[in-house]
Design goal:
By secondary structure, the protein is α/β, with parallel strands linked by helices. It has two domains: about 170 residues, Rossmann fold (3-Layer(aba) Sandwich), CATH 3.40.50; about 55 residues. Helices cover about 50% and strands about 10% of the residues. The protein has ten helices and four strands, in the order ααβαβαβαβααααα. It has a four-stranded parallel sheet with strand order 2-1-3-4, with helices on both faces. Strand 1, helix 3 and strand 2 form a beta-alpha-beta unit. The longest helix is centred in the N-terminal third of the chain and has 19 residues. The two termini are about 30 Å apart.
Length: about 260
């Protein structure tokens, strides 16, 4: 089998790789592995389809939500949504393979989509990668149960949903106490002028209790990063998988571009 030849934009690609590996010198076998990866995977990102690099946890049940986002985007004509775990992995024992693959895919994708449900796991450092240059301007985050911390917990339906779930999953409350507290919460929200349907809140509670899915919790660092995206209108909170599927509509629609055009 002949060695893979350098792909289009070879110099730019190697600049991305050099940054990812911290400037260390690559041996010939490592270069061949990188060329093979770029020859196989990057043409999809250079094609006329709009590419969406989907980030998040690969563990069950979180992977199911990544597939839900991928499936929703696949329905859009001209979209190429993908998950890094499905792609060819670089066969090298010495290099920081994840950093190389992530940097290449993030650089040449049109958009980056992060789905978050917890503060631990591989998706945590991914959030740290996309909250600044060079990826921030094309990144969107979808954090489950996220609501920015404010003096009032009733500033949005998301705040009310989060507060209701925290009440339901409290260990020391009886069923009657839960109902009383949730009803009071909704009443206060409505009295403050928030347009919220009490039945929708209870439907959410029923779904999450059936799943036994407690409210997602995040560190202060995570909340601040989500807030940064929120201030730029690129943070879309969700509470159920159906809401996540609907939220995908917030992403930019596919826009065809000339074949082999680089993003840079």
């Amino acid at each position: 089998m002949s060695d893979p030849s350098p792909p289009p934009d070879a110099a730019d690609i190697m600049a991305v790789v050099d940054e990812a590996v911290g400037g260390i010198e690559l041996d010939p076998a490592e270069k061949r592995a990188i060329w093979r990866f770029t020859r196989r995977e990057l043409p999809y990102l250079w094609s006329q389809r709009t590419s969406y690099f989907i980030l998040g946890s690969y563990r069950d049940p979180y992977l199911r939500r990544l597939r839900a986002v991928q499936n929703e985007l696949t329905k859009q004509l001209g979209a190429y949504p993908f998950i890094m775990g499905d792609l060819l992995e670089l066969p090298t024992d010495r290099l920081n393979t994840f950093d190389i693959m992530f940097s290449l895919l993030a650089t040449y994708s049109d958009y980056i989509v992060g789905v978050f449900e917890k503060e631990s796991g591989g998706e945590a450092p991914e959030l740290g990668e996309i909250d600044g240059p060079p990826y921030f301007d094309k990144s969107y985050v979808f954090p489950r149960d996220y609501a920015w911390v404010t003096d009032s917990n009733l500033e949005s339906t998301q705040h009310v949903s989060q507060a209701a779930l925290e009440i339901v999953f409290a260990d020391d409350l009886s069923e009657d106490e839960v109902k009383s507290k949730v009803d009071s919460l909704v009443d206060r929200a409505q009295e403050s002028g928030l347009d919220i349907d009490e039945q929708n809140v209870w439907d959410l509670i029923d779904e999450r209790t059936d799943e036994q899915t407690e409210p997602a919790t995040y560190s202060w660092v995570h909340l601040n990063k989500f807030r940064k995206f929120e201030l730029h209108d690129r943070c879309v909170p969700w509470t159920t998988e159906d809401e996540l599927r609907t939220a995908v509509d917030e992403l930019p629609s596919p826009t065809p571009r000339p074949e082999w055009e680089s993003n840079e």
